[in-house]
Specification:
The protein has 14 helices and seven strands. Strands 1-5-4-3-2 form a five-stranded antiparallel beta sheet. 49% of the residues lie in helices and 13% in strands. It is globular, with a radius of gyration of 19 Å. The protein binds two DNA strands through helix 6, helix 8, helix 11 and helix 12.
Length: 290
DNA sequence: CAGGTC
DNA sequence: ACTGG
């Protein structure tokens, strides 16, 4: 039995674990006995929000290591008060900021993130979940903690062996023709995702978009949700609609014009603004199929 | 009809 | 285009 670290991490800042995990950023996390169970820093973790902080349980022999991993995943070092203060200057964000108080951007593994959002193409959130679970279930390492079992995202090398036909069988549909070469390219070391963290946003974005199946939107998701580029602004159909309706009087605006506007209007934390716009627009549409 | 891409 | 929630 692997050593397990459990404990309590005081959190004195806006954080809603449930909203953050169930806002379409991560797709392997699940509820289990009032806890959230999911991959964290290559291991499996249990998290539960209680008064004043988080209870955690994770396979590790060091509490400090676990706490560091939680800090990284939940981005507890972000200047969240400053970010919220900036976003509150926008009247359209005030209501979503209140209603979704504590909704945070998460920092997930870049490979897991990129793979997930290539699978997100033209799919809804339950379908993305099902694809990622099928994929991980087929060739990912099985992690377990207590009674919770969780297939890990297969590494690129393992996934590269699966082949496009099998990926289709696993329910990926036409996305299989992107995921297969994606895994092979990353496995071959042609692009080092982790190294993009230290590159400027534009450069990292262009590099990601060299990959087949990675367009502007998927690249921006990887930038915001895994590579610390909080200035990127993932523009999906919901956010596009929200921006058109709320800021441009229903007028159709070209994507690059929206991007320029977002950069000007939201600045360095456009990624956070996007997540609140997305969340609110989804709820208002009455399709909160999270 | 779905957190787009080539 | 694939297909399933």
């Amino acid at each position: 039995m692997a050593p397990t670290a459990l404990g309590f991490l005081p959190v004195a800042q806006p954080l809603d674990l449930e909203k953050s995990i169930e806002s379409g950023q991560v797709f392997l996390w699940r509820r289990h006995d009032g806890w959230f169970c999911g991959p964290l820093g290559g291991k499996i973790a249990h998290l539960r929000q209680v008064e004043g902080g988080l209870e955690f349980e994770m396979a590790s022999n060091s509490q400090e290591e676990v706490i560091a991993a939680i800090h990284a995943f939940l981005r507890l070092n972000d200047p969240i008060e400053e970010i919220l203060r900036q976003l509150q200057a926008d009247p359209h964000l005030r209501e979503p900021l209140q209603r979704n108080h504590g909704l945070r951007i998460l920092r997930q593994d870049p490979w897991e993130c990129l793979l997930s959002f290539v699978c997100s193409i033209d799919a809804n959130i339950p379908r993305i979940r099902s694809m990622i679970n099928a994929l991980a279930g087929h060739c990912g390492q099985e992690l377990s903690l207590g009674e919770c079992r969780l297939p890990a995202i297969p590494n690129p090398e393992t996934l590269a062996e699966v082949g496009e036909a099998k990926l289709r069988e696993l329910g990926l549909g036409f996305r299989a023709k992107y995921v297969d070469p994606l895994a092979k390219t990353i496995a071959a070391g042609e692009i080092d995702l982790e190294s993009l963290r230290s590159r400027p946003t534009d450069e990292a974005r262009k590099t990601l978009m060299l990959l087949k199946g990675v367009g502007e939107k998927v690249a921006d998701c990887a930038l915001v949700f895994s590579l610390d580029k909080l200035d990127a602004f993932p523009l999906d159909r919901w956010v596009r609609r929200a921006v058109q309706e709320w800021y441009f009087d229903g007028e159709a605006i070209p994507d690059r014009a929206i991007q320029a506007w977002a950069k000007e209007h939201f600045g360095g934390y456009a990624g956070y603004a996007q997540q609140y716009l997305f969340y609110r627009r989804r709820l208002d549409a009455g399709r909160s199929t999270f």
